[in-house]
Hints:
The structure holds two protein chains of two kinds.
Chain A: H1 16-19, H2 32-39, H3 49-53, H4 60-68, H5 72-80, H6 86-92, H7 106-109, H8 114-127, E1 143-147, H9 151-162, E2 166-170, H10 179-182, H11 191-203, E3 207-209, H12 220-226, E4 229-232, E5 236-239, E6 252-254, H13 255-264, E7 282-286, H14 290-300, E8 306-310, H15 322-330, E9 334-336, E10 339-346, E11 352-365, E12 371-375, E13 381-384, E14 387-390, E15 394-396, E16 428-430, H16 433-436, H17 441-460
Parallel strand pairs in A: 1-2, 1-4, 2-3, 4-16, 6-14, 7-8, 7-14, 8-9
Antiparallel strand pairs in A: 5-15, 10-11, 11-12, 11-13
Chain B: E1 6-11, E2 16-22, H1 24-27, E3 35-39, E4 47-50, E5 53-55, E6 60-66, H2 70-77, E7 86-91, E8 102-108, H3 111-124, E9 128-135, H4 144-149, E10 153-158, E11 165-166, H5 169-178, E12 185-189, H6 192-204, E13 208-212, E14 228-231, E15 234-237, H7 238-241, E16 244-246, H8 252-259, H9 263-283
Parallel strand pairs in B: 8-9, 8-12, 9-10, 10-11, 12-13
Antiparallel strand pairs in B: 1-2, 2-6, 3-4, 3-7, 5-6, 13-16, 14-15
Amino acid sequence: MPNPSAPRNNGRQQDPAVRRRNFEEVAQTFTHEEAVAEADRCLHCPTHPCQNACPVGVHIPDFIALIKAGDVGAAASEIMKTSLLPAICGRVCPQEKHCEGHCVLKAKFGAVNIGGLERYAADTARAQGALKPPVPAADTGKKVVCIGSGPSSLACAAELRRAGHDVTVLEALHAYGGVLRYGIPSFRLPREVINKEVQTVQAMGVKFKTDVLVGATLKVDELLKEYDAVYIGSGAGLPTMLGIPGENGVGVYSANEFLTRINLMQAYKFPQTDTPIKAGKHVIVLGGGNSAMDAARCAMRLGPESVTIAYRRSREEMPARAAEVEHAQEEGIEFEYLVTPKEILQDEKGHVTGIHFTRNELGAPDEKGRRRPVEIPGSDFVQPADTVITAIGQRPNPTITKTTAGLQTTERGVIALNDKGETSLPGVYAGGDIIRGGATVLLAMNDGIAAAGRINEYLKGK
Amino acid sequence: MRENEILLKEQLNDVVVKFVLYKPLVAQSAKAGQFVILRGAENGERVPVTLVDWDAKKGTITVIIQSIGKSTFMFNSFKQGDLFLNVLGPLGTPVDIQNYGTVAVVGGGVGIAEVYPIAKALKAAGNKVISILGARTKELVILEEEMKGVSDITLPCTDDGSYGQKGMVTDVLKGIVTAGEKINAGFVIGPIPMMKFTSKLMVELGVEPYASLNPIMLDGTGMCGCCRVSVEGKVRFACVDGPMFPARTIDFDELIRRTSEYKGEEKQAVQEYEKDHKCKIGLH
């Protein structure tokens, strides 16, 4: 019999006092006993609201039942029927918005820790050699190329290969994973997990190539001569800047740069690695999204005296996931709400010395329903800082759209899709941040999976 | 031939090395003013390096590298037959090559190599090309023969007077214009102070200046935002908007400050590298 009234197990985590200074993973994978006990809480509702709320439709009650039955390999295979990157999903998917947010136990006893169980199934099956990539269908003789190796392209490539196509992934950087590698820190997603998930996709027969920036090294029209279809999952582009004086000061990083130095280039190991980074004594992060949390938590791990996240609205309007905010707070990161940066102050050598802020109060809601910050006159103050990290969003990457004739974009610069999910060019599909401008790993993966389905249909007609 | 293989290595002077690499995908689409990102080892930096020449038929590209920091010391220790770990390109916006009339092409030190493809393209576009090659001393004047091949006039100069005219590139430029030469546009690549003063002089002399900027880069593809520079009071990104910019309004002082950010770390990395290097030599 299920045991729904047992308290939800949130999983073990590294002690905040220790983890705030290391890059090891914060959350720990369930043991077998913990996983079975948590799985035992699932009621296996016949209407499975969790599964209905999952953008990729993971067979949640089924895989949980297999964990309970002790067959972790089968549980992983069940997840992989719809999602081929379970170790990543289990870690970075915002489960509270999707599956766990719809669990019938949520209100009374706490939702089943579905993310923890997914991660357990993937990690444990892999460790036991029981994680088997699906066997691809018979070769179709069709060739497809996926641009980028981030979550969207990886998911698309894996699904296309499953359907029997000859699939190649082209990555611009020197390592695979896209934003998973340069954006998400290792304490949320260890590099080894990314490597293993990519290896699984490689084991299915997908070919990978680094150092190809499509739009520069090769153009989309050249790819269309060699491949039957093209998927563009090239991700986000340059950071949005604040447009205030001092933002090119020495010691001002965009979150993209700060995170890329640490995550892709492993700058926190300098001089064992060759790319340096600096945090100084006092760090201020400007922004309130997940990138701001990641940047602040990375900064804390470099050993400064203080890290402060400064956000122009209040805690309530902050777009970051609740769990990330809590983790940041536990690690000693301070929050300054309702402030707007006016100028980044510098010394005579151009080095950052602080930020001139004004305080805000909340006014009428904007078009998204979030209350607008309104400056309070005369509320100016200066907060000292050696390092400033701007994390206020990024623009779509224009490398492909600028170099591909006939590929339509919206006024925001993202690739436009019609109501069938097609771009304006036959045989060219797109998903992830290049159509959304900035979204989650899960939505990007979902786009890739959905596009793979459309590409399958398109290739049947070719 | 393997991708990224060094087909030819030529030591141009004590600190400058020319490499010809096998990289067909870059060779087939490279244009003047573009660059590649190189990596030499796991844990290595991503280093932007100007494309000096390319041959689409042979599938080769040429880069010329000066030993400055740990990464460039390591690159320049590579031998013929070795592989670069990563070669990504061609990156950046090509220089707007058109018939300007008479152009000055100014290179300082290893910047001579970097300005060579621009001189070549400008010559092919029908310009009268006047090339000024500046260096501290004779040994550092590189690619003179190649520059002569694509220029109507080639004027070397050295700070110490050991070769060509004694003086700086600005002295030479001033001399030609004072002598009556009407120059329409100038393209400058070299150390930042040299680009700053040459651009300033060009404006005074009625020459429209362009300078190729070398801020610190990471990905080099328009993602991280590290390479931002101020041009016309606006933030521009050298890796995608440049590296060549109209130079009248470039904030060169800001660029000097931003490129100096990691001087201490660079020194530390070189010291560790040299220590390691000597240790290995000692073992043999």
